[in-house]
Amino acid sequence: MSKKSKILIVILLLITAAAVGVTIWTLFFRDTAPELAPDYAPQEAEEYAEAVSEGASEEKMEAAEGGGAVSMIYQKNVQISLSENLASLLFQNPSKSVNDIVLQIVIVDAEGEETVIAQSGTLHPGYKVEQLALIEGAAKLSEGTYTGKYIVLYYDPDTAEKAVLNGSIEGIEITVTE
To answer: What does the angle CA 139 – CA 140 – CA 141 come to, to the nearest 5 degrees?
Structure first.
C-alpha cells in the first residue's frame, strides 16, 4: 500500500468517526425541549381544554380585515402540585373571541429572569383550561410562592399563523406545593 492510500484511509476514518459522533449526539444528547413561541399554532388542541358552557351563543367580536379580536377570562392565582406535575388555573378563551391562543405560565425570579414552566396546546374560542402539565426540567421548583405572569400567544384560526401582537398578564401569584 502506498503512502497516499494510507493517508486517504486515515482521513476517511476520521470523517466517518466525526459523522458517527454527530449522529450519536443528535439522537441521544441534543435538547429536544418544545419550541416555546412557535410561529404556527400547535397542531394538537390542548389536552386539558374543556368547552365553555355559558355564553356559548355569544356573537363573535368585530375585527377588521386581517386583524383579530380576543376576549379573555382568567384568575391571577396558579397552584402547582409537584407530585402531580400539574398547574391548576383558570384561563378561558370565550366563544366571542376570533383568535386561537396558546397560554404560557412564566416564573419571574428576583433578577427579572423569566422561565416558562407550562405551555398549553391550542385553545380555540369557546374553550377553557383549568390545568396544564409542567414542562419537564424547565425549572427546579420548591414549595413556596413565586411571582409570575401569563404570556398569551395569538394565532389566526384559519392559517394557524402567529399574530404580530401577543399579550402579557403580569402579577400572577404562583403557589407551589408537594
So the answer is: 100
Q: Which three cell numbers mark 122?
A: 391550542
- Locus of grid cell 405560565: 105
Q: Residue 112 corresponds to which cell in the numbers above?
A: 427579572
| 121 within 8 A of 149, measured Cβ to Cβ | no
Contact yes or no for 157/124 (Cβ under 8 A): yes
Residue 127 half-sphere exposure, CB side, CA atoms within 13 Å?
20
pTM equals 0.68
| Nearest to 177, CA basis, from 74, 51, 88, 60 | 88
Confidence of residue 80 (pLDDT cuts 50, 70, 90): very high
Beta-carbon-side half-sphere exposure of residue 37 (alpha carbons within 13 Å): 11
Q: How many CB atoms neighbour CB 126 within 10 A?
A: 18
